[in-house]
């Protein structure tokens, strides 16, 4: 059994805010839910499946189900950090294929900016009962940025990847963000500006890092018979994969990510290959994240990702592999420090032909969205979805 | 120039499963866990082998020698420090810090040796310095 063709993404919404000082967390979840249902042409009472992750207030899905007045017969609060929502799309399709629900709502929201959270540069303990890894890691000061930086350092050492090549990823994202009126950073930057920005944790500079923003987004995944009745362009899920990559008992290898496995699973299910993709949404917590995932998904040989991303090759209209045409997490939005949901949203916009005209890929009928959640350098969850315009 | 500024290190939380590891650290010894069923060493230490799932595991003392697998100097911290993965001579790679050295001269594959640094009210942490 496969989820190929069993579900459609019928509604999407991205909150326009990037600083939610006067909006509560639950309120943002509800606002994006309403936005995505309106986009699909569905109502709250049509929702019979609800999906959320750890960004939702309360225990699992319960508080948000209550707040929004939902009556789901299927819920799922799988949490793999920022990639959770890629997994939710796949799990929603599985539930729909099994007849467990027909209209699945997925929401994400967060307020790290309004709350003044030191997202990337301060070691964080989860509190409560320590995870088994915590005593062997937390006292050493792992942060989001320095653990990704170690992946970049090793990639440079093994494959000769350069800071300039990484910088091109930010440059491409900034070219796209200039057309997104909601993007936090809309100025086009150069390779020199990236490598001359302050060093945060070697070899990652400030401009190698994503933005920290408030906001959120939502998606509505529906059964084929529901999609058939709606007026929006049809975006069909044709393949999905997930994987959790770890330190493997001490056989640590920082040169690849779980995308190697989630991607292979998704491509096999969809029956397509990387070169078939017209557009890709690639998780971009840092520039190195993009480069490694592109290699692991099969868009470049391992170690050759630097060459793939250099010289504007990721810029829509001129490059061979247009990516993150909304500006991505590097320039536009990384709500709740979780960028997976917005990756799917821009892939859907591209497939609908609703991306900004300056970045819309022509005849975009096949797209991929991929996410990495957790820490690339410690342990992370990977999720890949492949979508087709019908 | 050596890094002379002191950073306060939080105490690791000790459990019954890992008590011996931290007791040894207090005596200046680095332990790794070995599976007597499949022969593999692993880190961080567990009572059930993550490779073959056998419960026949035991502590062995590591030489304290290793090489830097990767590192990153956290510049944007009140006291900059060097995060690292060190490949122990015995095989496993562990999360650690590189200390008592010029951070600007660190390199992947550089030989290092273990040192123990005091924590805030807990057992000391194994860290590494250029050999």
Describe the structure in your own words.
The complex is a heterodimer of chains A (390) and B (131). Chain A is α/β, with parallel strands linked by helices. Chain A has one domain: Thiolase/Chalcone synthase (Peroxisomal Thiolase, Chain A, domain 1), CATH 3.40.47.10. In chain A, helix 5 packs across helix 9 and helix 8 crosses helix 9. The longest helix of chain A is centred in the first third of the chain and has 16 residues. The mean pLDDT of chain A is 97. By secondary structure, chain B is mainly beta. Chain B has one domain. Chain B contains one helix and eight strands. In chain B, strand 1 and strand 2 form a beta hairpin. Chain B is globular and about 45 Å long. In chain B, 38% of the residues are buried. At the A-B interface, helix 4 and strand 5 of A face strand 2, strand 4, strand 5 and strand 6 of B.
Number of strands of chain A: 11
CA radius of gyration of chain B: 15 Å
Largest interface: A-B, 40 and 46 residues
In terms of quaternary structure, the protein is heterodimer
> Which whole number gives the mean pLDDT of chain B?
95
Structural class of chain A: alpha/beta
Query: What is CATH's topology name of chain A?
Result: Peroxisomal Thiolase, Chain A, domain 1
Distance between the termini of chain A: 21 Å
Uncertain parts of chain A: none
Query: Could you report the average pLDDT of chain A, rounded to the nearest whole number?
Result: 97
Strand content of chain B: 35-45%
Secondary-structure-based class of chain B equals mainly beta
CATH superfamily of chain A: Thiolase/Chalcone synthase
Please give the largest β-sheet of chain B.
5 strands, antiparallel
What's the N-to-C terminus distance of chain B? 16 Å
Number of helices of chain B: 1
């Amino acid at each position: 059994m496969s989820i190929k063709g069993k579900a459609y993404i019928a509604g999407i919404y991205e909150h326009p805010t990037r600083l939610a000082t006067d909006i509560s967390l639950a309120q943002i979840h509800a606002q994006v839910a309403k936005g995505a249902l309106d986009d699909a042409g569905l109502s709250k009472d049509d929702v019979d499946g609800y999906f959320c992750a750890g960004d939702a207030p309360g225990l699992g899905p319960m508080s948000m189900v209550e707040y929004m007045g939902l009556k789901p017969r299927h819920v799922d609060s799988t949490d793999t950090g920022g990639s959770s929502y890629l997994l939710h799309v796949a799990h929603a399709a599985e539930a729909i294929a099994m007849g467990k629900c027909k209209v699945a709502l997925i929401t994400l929201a967060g307020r790290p900016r309004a709350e003044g959270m030191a997202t990337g540069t301060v070691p964080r303990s989860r509190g409560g009962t320590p995870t088994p890894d915590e005593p062997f890691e937390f006292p050493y000061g792992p942060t989001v940025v320095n653990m990704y930086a170690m992946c970049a350092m090793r990639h440079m050492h093994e494959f000769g990847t350069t800071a300039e090549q990484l910088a091109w990823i930010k440059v491409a994202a900034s070219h796209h963000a200039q057309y997104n009126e909601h993007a936090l950073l809309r100025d086009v930057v150069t390779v020199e500006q990236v490598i001359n920005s302050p060093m945060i944790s070697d070899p990652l500079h400030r401009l190698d890092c994503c933005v920290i923003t408030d906001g959120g987004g939502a998606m509505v995944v529906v059964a084929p018979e529901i999609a058939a009745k709606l007026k929006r362009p049809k975006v069909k899920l044709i393949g999905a994969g997930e994987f959790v990559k770890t330190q493997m008992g001490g056989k640590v290898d920082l040169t690849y990510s779980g995308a190697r496995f989630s991607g292979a699973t998704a491509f096999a299910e969809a029956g397509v290959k990387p070169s078939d993709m017209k557009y890709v949404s690639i998780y971009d917590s840092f520039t190195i994240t993009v480069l490694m995932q592109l290699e692991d998904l099969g868009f470049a040989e391992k170690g050759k990702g630097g060459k793939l991303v250099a010289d504007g090759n990721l810029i829509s209209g001129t490059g061979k592999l247009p990516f993150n045409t909304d500006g991505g997490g590097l320039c536009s939005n990384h709500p709740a420090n979780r960028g997976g949901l917005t990756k799917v949203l821009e892939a859907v916009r591209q497939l609908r032909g609703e991306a900004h005209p300056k970045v819309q890929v022509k005849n975009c009928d096949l797209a991929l969205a991929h996410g990495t959640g957790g820490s690339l350098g410690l342990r992370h969850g990977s999720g890949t979805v492949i979508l087709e315009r019908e | 120039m050596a890094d002379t500024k002191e950073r306060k290190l939080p105490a690791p939380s000790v459990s019954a499963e890992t008590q011996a590891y931290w007791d040894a650290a207090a005596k200046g010894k680095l332990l790794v866990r070995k599976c007597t069923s499949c022969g593999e060493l692993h880190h961080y230490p567990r009572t059930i082998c993550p490779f073959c799932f056998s419960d026949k595991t035991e502590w062995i003392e590591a030489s304290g020698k290793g090489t830097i697998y990767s590192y990153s100097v956290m510049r944007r911290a009140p006291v900059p420090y060097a995060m690292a993965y060190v490949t122990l001579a015995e095989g496993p790679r562990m999360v650690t810090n590189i200390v008592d050295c010029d951070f600007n001269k660190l390199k992947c594959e550089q030989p290092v040796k273990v040192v123990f640094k005091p924590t805030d009210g807990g057992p000391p942490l194994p860290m590494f310095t250029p050999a």
